Every structure is written in C-alpha cells, then in structure tokens.
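Internal tracking record. Fields below are filled automatically when a chain is submitted to the structure queue. Please do not edit lines marked as system-generated. If the sequence contains nonstandard residues, flag them in the REMARKS field before resubmitting.
Queue: standard
Priority: normal
Entity type: single polypeptide chain
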Amino acid sequence: MMTSKCIAITVSLCILSVIVQVLYSQTTNMQERHLEVPDDIYTPVSRDHMPKGPAYTVRTSDVFTTQVNIDEDGNDIIGDAANEPSIAVDPTNPNRMVIGWRQFDTIDNNFRQAGYGYSLDGGLSWVFPGVLDPGNFRSDPVLDFDSNGNFYYNSLQGDFSCDVFAIRDGGVVWEAPIPANGGDKQWMRVDRTEGLGAQNIYAHWNLSFTTCDDAFTRSTDDGLSFEDCVSVPENPFWGTLAVNRDGILYVTGTSAFGNGIVVIRSFTAQDPNDNFVWEDMSMVNLDGSLDAFVPINPQGLLGQTWVDVDISEGPGQDNVYVLASVRRISNSDPADVMFARSTDAGVSFESPIRINTDNSTSNYQWFGTMAVAPNGRIDVIWLDTRDAPAGTFFSELYYSFSEDQGVTWSENESMSIPFDPTVGYPQQNKMGDYFDMVSDNEGAHIAWTNTINGGQDVYYSRIIPSDVLSNENLIFTNNSIISYPNPFTDQITILFNLQQREKIQVEVYDILGKKISSLLNEETSGEQKIIWDGTNQENKPVTNGMYFILLRTSTTTEIIKVLKQ
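SYSTEM-GENERATED OUTPUT FOLLOWS
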C-alpha cells in the first residue's frame, strides 16, 4: 500500500513534470521572438562622447565591490548597459582575472557585443579595453582558464553558433576566433586535472536554439578545433558543467522530456581517442523548477542550474552539488535558492535544502549561483527581495557558505545596498540570465550585475567568508554616497568619503524636486557620517515614500534614492 508521504512525493513529481513540459514547450516555440538574435542594426557609439559619472566602489574588511565596465579614467559610462557576466581566474596567477559580459553601447539600441574587462592586481582595479570583434553581434559570454594559464572566451553569434577566442602563454594578444558549434545559453568548462583529459574544453547548450542537430561538443587540442556535435540524454537546458579531480564530466539542466532537473555524467569524455558515451543520468529533486519570463526579470531567466564538485582531499571528496533558484512545488514561493548534494559521485542525490532563510513565501531569491573551493567550502550568492518595499523588486546581493559539505550553512548576509533591477533595461526587459563565481580557499570572486549607479553595470566582488562586518564599517574609495538601512523607518545613516578638503552640501529632496532638509553645508574632508531622522526643515516627520539624497561638491554631484516606510 502506498503511504500518504509516498503519494505526496508522487504528486509533487507529477506536478514538476507538467511544469517542466510546459516550460520546454514555451522554449521550443520561441524561435520567432527569441532574444538572442540581432533585431537592431549596429550603430557605432563612442565611449568618449557618452556622459560620465563616478564609478561605484565600496570596501569592508571582508567584502570589496567595484565596477568593471568603466572608461579609461575609471568612470561610469552613463547610458550604456552590461549584463550576463562570466568570470575566470588564472590558476597560475590569481591576480590575473577576466570578466566578460553582453555589452550594449547604448540602451537605445538592442545590438550587443562581446564586452570584457581584465584585472592584473587581484580585482582591485579593472580595465575595459573595448569589445571583441567590434560591430558584430555577440551574446552569452562564458569564460575559463586552463591549468596552464591559457584563456578562453566562448561567444554566441546571432545565428546560434559559437566562437571561442583565446589568449595563450600568459599574453594579451587575442587569437582569431575558432568555430565551436554551440547554441543559446551555452556553458563551457575546461578540464584542469593532470589526467587523460587535461586541458579538454567542454561546451553544452540549449538544443532548441543551435545550428547543430545535437547540443554538446568538446575540444581535445587546447581549443584549436572543436568536434562535431553529439547528443546528451534528456536534452537538458539552462544548466552548467563541472569536472571532478578524476576527469569525470558532469552536465546539469532541466530535462527536455519533463523529468525535472537532471545530472548526466561521463567517465570517457576525457579520452581524446574515445567517442565518449554518457554513462549515468540522475534526477535531482530541488522541490521546484527553473522558471523564465517572471515579473522580476520579464524577458529573462529566474536563474540557471549549477553543478559543482568537491576536488579536495577532505571528507567531501568527490561530492557533487546542485543548486538553482526555483519556483517551488511544495508551496507558492516564486523563487527560492535550493541545494542538493550527492555523496556517491552523482549516482543519487539527497533531499533538497533551502539556502535562503527568510520566512516569506512571496519574496524572490533569484540568480542563485554556486561555486566550490579547492578546500571543499561551498559558496552561494543570490539576489534577494526580502527587504524590498511593498510593490517593488528592490534586490540585494546575499551570500552564504558551508564548510561541512552542505549540511549546515552560515547566516544569510547582505553584501550590497538595495537596488532596483527594473531600471536601465537595454531595450530588453531583463537584467540578463545569470551571474558567475569562482571560489578559492580564501573566498569567492563574483561577477554580477546591478543598477546602483542608475543603469545596468557589471561589478566584481570579492567576499571573504569570515565574520562579515556590518554596514557601519563601510569605507569608500571615492566620493560615492551610500545609506543604510534602505528602506528605513526611523532614521537612515549616510556615509561618504571626500578625497580632498572641499565645500560640500548634503540635502534631501522629495519626488517633486522640493528640498526637504539640509543635512550638511560646510567645508570638510575624509570619512563622514550623517544621520537623517526622517524629518523636514521644521523637524516634522515626512510621509512614507521615495526621497533623494544629494551630495554636491565643487567637483561632483551624486544622488541616491532612499525609501521611508
């Protein structure tokens, strides 16, 4: 006799299957309105003629965040857009890292190109030299280094085929792009083991949007050529890849046949002389399904599925982990970050764990992203609306980590101020489809998108998972102004740092442009802290709503939005 618990599980799996089939049906019928094709012509836009503003940079003792898509003087380029970032860190020189993104030279034109920025000092400063292949449509960047320090940039073209650009021998010169088959939402991973598959490059994509009959390829000659496409069981889509310390390849995504989130593995993919096969398929229960075209990201994904492996020699050795932001089955939550692990190298997966700890079933925890450090620590980030004012999607970057193979997790910590993800759309109503992260034994390197400066920009963050300090310890490296908590009820703290002594005004305005209060009007320098108690110039409480904090000096003017509840 089937127990009530078994019946519940069976019903949940059936519901999941129906959801996935509907999603896949929607996906396969999207060719005519697909977003990764050129629908605006290329119009050259000079960065030199775009307006500029201060780039956003903030540092605490455990978190550092700085803008990447900046001009040659380190300024924010106002009116462009950048999203869908991917990050790669050179294992032979961790100070060398690259972030790629979809570059929109102006939000008035939907044409995008292959943007990239690099750092040679561990992420403290970044250079945005321009785009690869200027004037040609490129999207969905995915980046990786091999174990020798050779760098690869996988780029989707408007006909759904991909190219891989390479920089070799630790240099700075891009080689000519190599055709790599491919398709929409391709993901790429390089084998960094010392085994049979060392330096192999693997790529997998969505079968619905490709120039191939199948959805997987590999290169066994250091990216000089890519093999013919081969099929993957279940045709999973919207997922990533991982390689364990023995060269076993893992592919994850949502099954095209309604079987939910799956993990496929191959022992023989590493052998360049073998027409490899896929040996195993495992179902992963995350109590939810991937989603797309949701209110918080109307023309994009809720996030993709992440798979990663423990390559340490510790107790989690060879564990396989899967994580995604999913629309829940067991309740009405539109987006939770769910995690499941396998302790038998991916043969089977345990019951899921919810990473976000908010009590609501109506908030969005979206763009969930995971990476596993060489020592086995698991890092997870996501965007979170738990503190958003009613009727808004204001989001903050959240972080949690586990040092016991995913059994327990650190307290959810906010790593950013709130921002409105619905502003700065580049002729597409979305903030992209994914973030990316690389973890080392010290912490996490993160490539992500936010709108803190009023438009879509790409940022690098470095998070060290030791006691993350509170916002009161923020130190600014430029004249940026920041406030917390935001939204606020009784009072809000305003922090800024002046690099030189000068006259400064800090004022509060309402949404009609009327000055509400003057908080500072004097000559000063260095780090400053001001508290606004939510009153006007007559010391009467202001009504709830949106206000603007303006910082004005002889050299700069900066404005941020704050919300009183």
